[in-house]
Amino acid sequence: MINIAIICEYNPMHNGHLHQIKKIKQKFPKSNIIALMSTSFVQRGEPSIIGKFDKARSALKCGVDLVFEIPAIISLQSADYFSYYTTFLLNELGLIDYISFGIEDDTETFYKLLDFKIKNESKIFELQGKYIKQGYSYKNAYLEAINEIDKNVPHSIISPNNTLALNYALTLNKLNSKIKILPIQRKDGGYNSEKLDKYKFQSATTIRNLIKENYDVSNYVPAELIEILKNTNLHNIDEYSNIFYYKAFIEKNTGESIAGFEPGMLNLLKKNYSDKISDMIEKSHNKRYSKSRLKRFIINYLLEIEVVDIKNLDKINYLRPIGFNDKGRDLINQLKNLTDFTILNKLVDYVTLDDVNRNFAEIDIRAYELQNLNNTKILNKNFKNRIYIK
Fold it and tell me: Which biological process annotations from GO are given for this protein (predicted)?
């Protein structure tokens, strides 16, 4: 049977995600779908709007067979790190036949963009560095580099979803992986789109904004998610403002060892301190520091994720399943003979990890505890919960 992986955040699961799962099932009706999913925190540096076990439950009810947790240290890094190490993890499992991902354009255009990236990757890197030194933002420097090489390349090459999709494909190429790619054109306004219309496909950003404003989102998300939203606590980054204040102003932690640190960044945030982190971000972001970059730094700072931890990422060798059905359970059993990775099924499995990976796993625990800081009823359920759906 064919095993197809989706690298995802499901923040929250919406009709666009369901469209991808349905397209996979149309092409490979008897396939298994494995989700490698960001859990407590997502790549834009925010807590997931709902908890990881609720996310896993919604994924399983919508056609996924097995959900693995992306280690938090990977979820909270830049797109380059995120895409490389998630792909690396899937490759190391020895189980995956395809990685499927959403793309902004038609498949033909995507493959042309991929070919351009493969042929010009080192040149793009060199030129981007030149433009960054001239004061361009990371994104604009990248676009200028692309334009200098070939002005006819579609600007969709820098869209968030195409950036990740191209990076997944490039990583597989670098790893000489046997895994194939299965790109599927998106059906919503794009990763960061906040435009609302009557179309049933909306971006996760739009849906989160609607949920925060108590709008009815039933037209835009699977029915399975509506019940979950009614019975769960919703999270946002402002919940951690007091902790940031304590670390920055009471402990006077300089942040110099923290992943994503740059001289002047923490001082800028402290200068613009507000009792809401979201307000502090609004005052602090500029062409050098995007909102996502600042938020990622803040959460890395609160979780004490250090530069040395990022340097050790090549040593990562564990994954934790947090939800599965019967087919997913069979896949977990198969992994024992396919990979040297430690599959963290029980708390006792953590004892078998080496020091580096135990540190990574402890970051996952801190991430869960930080996300659920204001919900003490579930703080002790991180290891008691695993979602099983027949």
Answer: tRNA modification
User: b/e string for 97-110 if b means 16 or more Cβ within 10 A?
Assistant: bbbbbbbbbeeebb
Is 99 flagged in the annotation as binding?
no
* Count of beta carbons in the 10 Å neighbourhood of residue 216: 9
| Distance (Å, whole) CA 210 – CA 194 | 10
Q: Is the pLDDT of residue 197 over 60?
A: no
26 has binding-site annotation: no
Is 43 marked within a binding site?
Answer: no
To the question of whether residue 98 is assigned a binding role by annotation, the answer is no
Q: Which of 191, 203, 204, 171 is closest to 5 using CA atoms? A: 171
pLDDT tens profile 123-148: 999 999 999 999 888 889 999 999 99
Yes or no: say if 278 and 236 are a contact pair by the CB < 8 Å rule: yes
Annotated binding-site residue? 10: yes
